[in-house]
Amino acid sequence: MEETRWRIACCAVALTIGLCARLPAQVTLNKNRDLAFGSMIAGTSAGTVSIATSGAVTSTGGVTLIPSTTSSAAFTLANPASGTNRFYFISLPGSVTISSGSSTMTVNGIANDPPNIGAINAGTSRVINVGATLNVGANQASGVYTGTFTLTVFLF
């Protein structure tokens, strides 16, 4: 059987300051780690590969996982000591499409931990982990599948 790999590169992050906010000290949002589904073999029936926010990997249906590097995505939201305490809201897309040439797959169930709404105090940082589910078609074409998603954090 031919080995097939899928990977999503988390290349886009955004940080938005709410309208009620004064000009803040430099709050930052940085990517630490890509979301990586690893290597697998697509079978004759459709299936899924899920990466939990904790990094745990599960599969269903006709997908056979091959030992390889997998990971949930991770981002760090940092509020400097000179900043002010802030509330945040995290926004993620409902789904994204990844591709290898003309072949595509859908990634959905994109979830984050900690929850979408929270607080970040001055002088602290928060790691945001992101997991998702890859939908693998029956006899999905082999290839290195890539795509991007945007994690947006609104500050208030």
Q: Can you put this structure into words, describing what you see?
A:
- The chain is mostly beta strands and 156 residues long.
- It has one domain (4-155).
- It has no helices and 13 strands.
- The strands form two sheets. Strands 1, 3, 4, 5, 6, 8, 9, 11 and 12 form a nine-stranded mixed sheet that branches. Strands 2-13-7-10 form a four-stranded mixed sheet, with no helix packed on it.
- A hairpin with a 5-residue loop joins strand 4 and strand 5.
- The protein is elongated, with a radius of gyration of 18 Å.
- Residues 1-12 and 17-21 have low confidence and may be disordered.
Write the layout of secondary structure elements.
Elements: E1 4-8, E2 12-17, E3 28-33, E4 35-51, E5 57-66, E6 73-79, E7 86-91, E8 95-100, E9 103-113, E10 117-120, E11 124-136, E12 144-145, E13 150-155
Parallel strand pairs: 1-12, 2-13
Antiparallel strand pairs: 1-4, 3-6, 4-5, 4-11, 6-11, 7-10, 7-13, 8-9, 9-11
Instruction: Give me the number of helical elements.
Output: 0
Order of helix and strand elements from N to C terminus: EEEEEEEEEEEEE
Number of domains: 1
Structural shape: elongated
- Portion of residues within helices: under 10%
Average pLDDT metric: 85
Integer-rounded radius of gyration: 18 Å
Instruction: Tell me about the largest β-sheet.
Output: 9 strands, mixed
Distance from N terminus to C terminus (CA atoms, Å) equals 52 Å
The fraction of residues assigned to DSSP E strands is: over 45%
Record field, number of beta strands: 13
